[in-house]
Amino acid sequence: MGVFAHAQTAEQESEQVAKIAAPVIPQQVRYSGKLATRTGDIVEAVFSIYAAPEGGEPLWTETAEGCD
């Protein structure tokens, strides 16, 4: 096998590993819970998704206002 053929093989293997290791990103995240509030209180919930377990800016944020 020549150097060029070896380089192509390594590149193809790298692409295959990248395809296997690619994360699956869900289109929807379901969440359910119960907030301990008094009846009639208005609640604001902020949901955020981060790239790392700690620190950094959120990749996505959504605020649900007026939940009761």
What does the model show?
The chain is α+β, with helices and mostly antiparallel strands. It contains one helix and two strands; from the N terminus they run H-E-E. The protein has a two-stranded antiparallel sheet with strand order 1-2. The longest helix is centred in the N-terminal third of the chain and has 19 residues.
Secondary structure topology:
Blueprint: H1 3-21, E1 43-49, E2 60-67
Antiparallel strand pairs: 1-2
Q: What is the ordering of alpha helices and beta strands? A: HEE
The radius of gyration computed from the alpha-carbon positions, rounded to a whole number of angstroms, is 23 Å
Which word captures the global form? elongated
User: In whole angstroms, how far apart are the ends?
Assistant: 68 Å
Number of helices: 1
Secondary structure: number of strands? 2
Q: What order do the strands of the largest sheet run in, or round the barrel if closed?
A: 1-2
**What is the percent of helical residues?**
25-40%
**Spans where pLDDT lies below 50 across 5 or more residues:** none
Mean pLDDT metric: 74
Q: Determine the structural class based on helices, strands and strand pairing.
A: alpha+beta
Sketch the major β-sheet: 2 strands, antiparallel
Strand composition percent:
15-25%
What brief labels describe this structure?
single chain; 68 residues; alpha+beta; two-stranded antiparallel ribbon; 2 strands; elongated
Give a short overview.
The chain has 68 residues and is an alpha+beta fold.
